[in-house]
Amino acid sequence: MTSNFRNHVLIGLIVLLTAVTLISGCSNKPAAPAAPQHPDLSGLWLGNRGNWSMTRGAKLGTEPDVPYAPWALERIKGVIAGTGGSADADFANTNDPSLKYADPLGFPRQYQHPLKFKIVQTDNSVYQLWEWNKAWREIPLNKQHTEDPDISWYGESVGKWEGDTLVVDSIGFKDATWMDGVGHPHSEELRVIERMQRVDPETLRIDFTFEDPIAYTHPWTSTLTAKLVHDGKMTETVTTMSDELHYRERFLNQKPTIPIRR
Amino acid sequence: MNHRGFGRFWMGVGALLISVSAFAHHGRALIYDAKKEVTVKGTVTEFVWFNPHVQIGIDGMDDKGVRHHWLIEASSTGYLSQRGWTRKSLKAGETITITFNPGLNPGRNATLTGDLVKVVLPDGKELPK
Q: What is the end-to-end Cα distance of chain B in Å, rounded?
């Protein structure tokens, strides 16, 4: 084989490889999609109580922007609020289930407690951990609700990303809880839609829509703003029925109606 | 004003009307005299790191020189932790100056009660409610 022939073969191979490279580079085949980059909502947050709008300073049942259905108006007739969210709060005689029975606050009332919550974010789920009474929920992403969800204190939540907003859809709530300390009622048909946005590095905004065709004639809304807590930690702040009755005995001179831990 | 705008209007009104304490475990208006503050220098008899409310017992004299025992409530352990308190912030036997809103009715065994405003330690350090 002459050197001239070898040179021609080498040049041919180089031309062929270059052509293959160019053709493959110019093909219309799409590149593998990059994993979507969602905003990072994770962190320790403290709700800004001044922005919590479910207790609006008005007397329960008279707020002009809460669309009560007759069912709800009937239900609130017996409400005796015990927390400061109501101007008429009567702690000694309240029938607030979280105070009278030490029931879980439930949802969405859990947000109203003035302690922190933590958000833990993964590709498949977002977890929300509340400091008060060590409550938590999982928000699976891109899943459907189960066909017949259990009725529970904190309901069943699913979530999805819409741009920079995490949209959480929750159903299946036990109707024994109040929506807030004032006593807004809800039925088991309550659906809560939350739109969570990190509006700046320090601020989380949650817009709520409450749908409950039994309790309210049409959906109504509320907003919570939370600030990032940089140096806090999650404490254990749990209150039991014994704790509640022990406190009432000492400060209100109310005799416990059941045996309590001493 | 549309529905959402109206809601935000009321949100603002609510923010103005509702004080910070309004979101505590219980309403205070029927339990404590929020318009009156009592300051007592006295001896801690107990410091109970407990929920729903941390409790402080104190022996001291009122402004007429009469000796009393008071039982003062503070916020929850979690809330106080955020504000610099620990379960060892106070101990029985130490002298503190404590300010509180007095209870409208006595507690168990006719004990005088109060709702904490602040504690000042002997070194001048202040522990907020």
A: 40
**Token digits for A241?**
């029925």
ipTM of the complex: 0.81
| Radius of gyration from C-alpha coordinates of chain B | 17
What would the two tokens of residue A185 be? 């009622």
β-bridge mates for residue A140, sequence order? A125
| Chain B residues with beta carbon closer than 8 angstroms to that of A53 | 7-8, 10-11, 14-15
For residue B40, pLDDT over 80 is answered with: yes
Nearest to B27 among A53, A89, A131 (CB): A89
Dig out the tokens for A157 from the structure: 């939540």
Model pLDDT, residue B17: 34
| Assigned token pair, A235 | 């404490």
Residues A116-140 have pLDDT tens digits of 999 999 999 999 999 999 999 999 9
Q: Which residue has the tokens 């299946």?
A: A172
Query: What integer is the mean pLDDT of A174-191?
Result: 94
- What CA–CA distances, in Å, run from B13 to A57, A63, A108, B73, B125? 7, 12, 21, 30, 36
Residue bearing tokens 């939370």: A226
Instruction: Give percent of chain A above pLDDT 70.
Output: 81
Please give the Cα distance from A254 to A181 (Å, whole number).
22
Query: What DSSP element (H or E) covers B96?
Result: strand B95-102
- pLDDT of B65 above 60: yes
Amino acid of residue A44 = L
Question: Are B26 and A232 a contacting pair at CB < 8 A?
Answer: no
Give the pair of three-digit tokens for residue A183.
């006593």
Residue with tokens 């959480």: A168
